[in-house]
Amino acid sequence: MEAATTLRTKVWDLPTRVFHWLLAACAVGLLVTGKMKGDALEWHARIGYCVGALLLFRLVWGFVGGRWSRFAAFAPSPARAWAYLRGAHADAPGHNPLGAFSVYALLLFFALQVASGLFSATKEDFAAPLSVLVSNDTVRFMTGYHKRVGQVVLIVLVSLHLIAVLYYLARGRNLVAAMVHGEQAGPGEPSRDDARSRWLAVALLSLCSLVMYCVVKLGG
Q: Does pTM surpass 0.90?
Protein backbone atom coordinates (compact mmCIF):
# COMPACT_ATOMS: atom_id res chain seq x y z
CA MET A 1 0.00 0.00 0.00
CA GLU A 2 2.78 2.42 0.86
CA ALA A 3 4.57 1.75 -2.42
CA ALA A 4 1.38 2.47 -4.35
CA THR A 5 0.86 5.79 -2.63
CA THR A 6 4.46 6.92 -3.25
CA LEU A 7 4.61 5.82 -6.90
CA ARG A 8 5.22 8.76 -9.22
CA THR A 9 4.92 9.02 -12.99
CA LYS A 10 6.88 11.29 -15.33
CA VAL A 11 4.04 13.21 -16.93
CA TRP A 12 5.39 16.54 -18.19
CA ASP A 13 8.48 16.41 -20.38
CA LEU A 14 11.02 19.21 -20.12
CA PRO A 15 9.97 21.00 -23.35
CA THR A 16 6.37 21.20 -22.11
CA ARG A 17 7.49 22.56 -18.75
CA VAL A 18 9.74 25.15 -20.37
CA PHE A 19 6.91 26.18 -22.69
CA HIS A 20 4.56 26.58 -19.73
CA TRP A 21 6.87 28.85 -17.73
CA LEU A 22 7.98 30.88 -20.74
CA LEU A 23 4.36 31.51 -21.68
CA ALA A 24 3.59 32.51 -18.08
CA ALA A 25 6.53 34.94 -18.06
CA CYS A 26 5.45 36.38 -21.42
CA ALA A 27 1.88 36.83 -20.15
CA VAL A 28 3.16 38.92 -17.25
CA GLY A 29 5.41 40.91 -19.58
CA LEU A 30 2.54 41.56 -22.00
CA LEU A 31 0.26 42.76 -19.22
CA VAL A 32 2.87 45.15 -17.85
CA THR A 33 4.07 46.57 -21.17
CA GLY A 34 0.52 46.78 -22.50
CA LYS A 35 -0.32 49.31 -19.79
CA MET A 36 2.70 51.50 -20.53
CA LYS A 37 3.42 54.04 -23.24
CA GLY A 38 6.31 54.89 -25.52
CA ASP A 39 9.05 52.31 -26.07
CA ALA A 40 7.18 49.82 -23.89
CA LEU A 41 4.85 49.17 -26.83
CA GLU A 42 7.81 47.99 -28.90
CA TRP A 43 8.66 45.52 -26.15
CA HIS A 44 5.00 44.55 -25.93
CA ALA A 45 5.15 43.63 -29.62
CA ARG A 46 8.41 41.70 -29.27
CA ILE A 47 7.01 39.67 -26.38
CA GLY A 48 3.92 39.02 -28.49
CA TYR A 49 6.11 37.63 -31.27
CA CYS A 50 7.73 35.33 -28.71
CA VAL A 51 4.28 34.11 -27.66
CA GLY A 52 3.48 33.45 -31.31
CA ALA A 53 6.58 31.28 -31.68
CA LEU A 54 5.78 29.45 -28.45
CA LEU A 55 2.23 28.73 -29.60
CA LEU A 56 3.44 27.39 -32.93
CA PHE A 57 5.84 25.14 -31.04
CA ARG A 58 3.09 23.91 -28.71
CA LEU A 59 0.86 23.14 -31.68
CA VAL A 60 3.52 20.88 -33.19
CA TRP A 61 4.55 19.45 -29.82
CA GLY A 62 0.94 18.47 -29.25
CA PHE A 63 1.44 15.80 -31.92
CA VAL A 64 5.06 14.72 -31.41
CA GLY A 65 5.78 15.50 -27.75
CA GLY A 66 5.65 13.31 -24.66
CA ARG A 67 2.71 11.00 -24.00
CA TRP A 68 0.77 13.41 -21.79
CA SER A 69 1.67 16.53 -23.77
CA ARG A 70 -0.07 15.29 -26.89
CA PHE A 71 -3.53 16.65 -27.67
CA ALA A 72 -4.83 13.11 -28.01
CA ALA A 73 -4.11 12.57 -24.30
CA PHE A 74 -6.48 15.34 -23.20
CA ALA A 75 -9.07 15.74 -25.92
CA PRO A 76 -11.90 17.96 -24.63
CA SER A 77 -15.05 16.06 -23.72
CA PRO A 78 -18.17 17.69 -22.19
CA ALA A 79 -19.33 14.28 -20.95
CA ARG A 80 -16.06 13.59 -19.11
CA ALA A 81 -15.97 17.14 -17.76
CA TRP A 82 -19.50 16.78 -16.38
CA ALA A 83 -18.64 13.40 -14.85
CA TYR A 84 -15.55 14.95 -13.27
CA LEU A 85 -17.63 17.76 -11.76
CA ARG A 86 -19.96 15.16 -10.26
CA GLY A 87 -17.00 13.31 -8.77
CA ALA A 88 -17.44 10.29 -11.02
CA HIS A 89 -14.06 10.66 -12.69
CA ALA A 90 -10.97 9.66 -10.70
CA ASP A 91 -7.81 11.74 -10.91
CA ALA A 92 -5.40 10.41 -13.53
CA PRO A 93 -2.02 11.53 -14.93
CA GLY A 94 -2.04 14.61 -17.11
CA HIS A 95 -4.82 17.15 -17.44
CA ASN A 96 -8.17 16.30 -15.90
CA PRO A 97 -11.27 16.82 -18.13
CA LEU A 98 -11.80 20.36 -16.85
CA GLY A 99 -8.13 21.16 -17.20
CA ALA A 100 -8.29 20.04 -20.83
CA PHE A 101 -10.88 22.70 -21.62
CA SER A 102 -8.77 25.27 -19.78
CA VAL A 103 -5.68 24.45 -21.82
CA TYR A 104 -7.50 24.60 -25.14
CA ALA A 105 -9.18 27.88 -24.19
CA LEU A 106 -5.88 29.47 -23.16
CA LEU A 107 -4.11 28.33 -26.32
CA LEU A 108 -6.97 29.55 -28.50
CA PHE A 109 -7.27 32.99 -26.95
CA PHE A 110 -3.51 33.52 -26.74
CA ALA A 111 -3.41 32.72 -30.47
CA LEU A 112 -6.25 35.17 -31.16
CA GLN A 113 -4.46 37.81 -29.11
CA VAL A 114 -1.24 37.36 -31.07
CA ALA A 115 -3.10 37.38 -34.39
CA SER A 116 -5.10 40.51 -33.56
CA GLY A 117 -1.98 42.21 -32.22
CA LEU A 118 -0.19 41.71 -35.52
CA PHE A 119 -2.85 43.82 -37.26
CA SER A 120 -3.35 46.46 -34.55
CA ALA A 121 -2.36 50.10 -34.30
CA THR A 122 -2.54 52.71 -31.55
CA LYS A 123 -2.95 56.47 -31.34
CA GLU A 124 0.63 56.71 -30.07
CA ASP A 125 1.99 56.23 -33.60
CA PHE A 126 2.60 52.52 -33.09
CA ALA A 127 1.51 50.20 -35.88
CA ALA A 128 1.91 46.43 -35.81
CA PRO A 129 3.83 44.96 -38.78
CA LEU A 130 0.84 43.45 -40.61
CA SER A 131 -1.45 46.45 -40.18
CA VAL A 132 -0.22 47.84 -43.52
CA LEU A 133 -1.62 44.80 -45.31
CA VAL A 134 -5.28 45.36 -44.38
CA SER A 135 -7.86 48.13 -44.46
CA ASN A 136 -8.29 50.76 -41.76
CA ASP A 137 -11.59 49.17 -40.75
CA THR A 138 -9.84 45.85 -40.21
CA VAL A 139 -7.11 47.54 -38.17
CA ARG A 140 -9.73 49.23 -35.98
CA PHE A 141 -11.56 45.92 -35.49
CA MET A 142 -8.37 44.05 -34.62
CA THR A 143 -7.24 46.82 -32.27
CA GLY A 144 -10.61 46.89 -30.54
CA TYR A 145 -10.62 43.13 -30.05
CA HIS A 146 -7.01 43.11 -28.88
CA LYS A 147 -7.47 45.86 -26.28
CA ARG A 148 -11.05 45.41 -25.12
CA VAL A 149 -12.01 41.77 -25.67
CA GLY A 150 -9.03 39.45 -25.96
CA GLN A 151 -7.14 41.04 -23.09
CA VAL A 152 -10.12 40.72 -20.74
CA VAL A 153 -10.83 37.13 -21.76
CA LEU A 154 -7.21 36.12 -21.16
CA ILE A 155 -7.11 37.82 -17.76
CA VAL A 156 -10.26 35.90 -16.78
CA LEU A 157 -8.90 32.59 -18.07
CA VAL A 158 -5.52 33.02 -16.38
CA SER A 159 -7.27 34.03 -13.13
CA LEU A 160 -9.44 30.90 -13.28
CA HIS A 161 -6.33 28.85 -13.93
CA LEU A 162 -4.62 30.27 -10.85
CA ILE A 163 -7.75 29.72 -8.74
CA ALA A 164 -7.82 26.08 -9.88
CA VAL A 165 -4.15 25.67 -8.93
CA LEU A 166 -4.88 27.00 -5.44
CA TYR A 167 -7.97 24.78 -5.15
CA TYR A 168 -6.01 21.62 -5.96
CA LEU A 169 -3.19 22.73 -3.68
CA ALA A 170 -5.71 22.93 -0.83
CA ARG A 171 -6.75 19.36 -1.72
CA GLY A 172 -3.16 18.14 -1.53
CA ARG A 173 -2.26 18.21 -5.25
CA ASN A 174 0.63 20.55 -5.98
CA LEU A 175 0.26 21.27 -9.68
CA VAL A 176 2.97 23.93 -9.60
CA ALA A 177 5.55 21.44 -8.33
CA ALA A 178 4.45 18.95 -10.97
CA MET A 179 5.14 21.54 -13.66
CA VAL A 180 8.61 22.05 -12.18
CA HIS A 181 9.86 18.47 -11.85
CA GLY A 182 7.38 16.91 -14.28
CA GLU A 183 6.08 14.16 -12.01
CA GLN A 184 2.63 13.37 -10.66
CA ALA A 185 1.66 10.89 -7.97
CA GLY A 186 0.13 7.62 -9.11
CA PRO A 187 0.72 4.97 -11.77
CA GLY A 188 0.65 5.66 -15.48
CA GLU A 189 2.59 5.48 -18.72
CA PRO A 190 5.55 7.89 -18.42
CA SER A 191 6.18 10.53 -21.05
CA ARG A 192 9.28 10.27 -23.17
CA ASP A 193 11.78 12.87 -22.01
CA ASP A 194 15.22 11.87 -23.24
CA ALA A 195 18.01 13.85 -24.89
CA ARG A 196 16.73 13.06 -28.37
CA SER A 197 13.24 14.44 -27.71
CA ARG A 198 14.71 17.54 -26.06
CA TRP A 199 16.95 18.28 -29.03
CA LEU A 200 13.94 17.77 -31.27
CA ALA A 201 12.11 20.38 -29.20
CA VAL A 202 15.02 22.82 -29.58
CA ALA A 203 14.98 22.33 -33.36
CA LEU A 204 11.19 22.78 -33.52
CA LEU A 205 11.24 25.93 -31.39
CA SER A 206 14.00 27.38 -33.58
CA LEU A 207 11.96 26.60 -36.69
CA CYS A 208 8.81 28.11 -35.18
CA SER A 209 10.76 31.24 -34.23
CA LEU A 210 11.94 31.53 -37.83
CA VAL A 211 8.37 31.14 -39.08
CA MET A 212 7.19 33.85 -36.70
CA TYR A 213 10.03 36.11 -37.84
CA CYS A 214 8.97 35.61 -41.45
CA VAL A 215 5.35 36.41 -40.59
CA VAL A 216 6.37 39.66 -38.91
CA LYS A 217 8.46 40.61 -41.95
CA LEU A 218 5.49 40.20 -44.29
CA GLY A 219 4.57 43.80 -43.53
CA GLY A 220 7.88 45.06 -44.85
A: yes
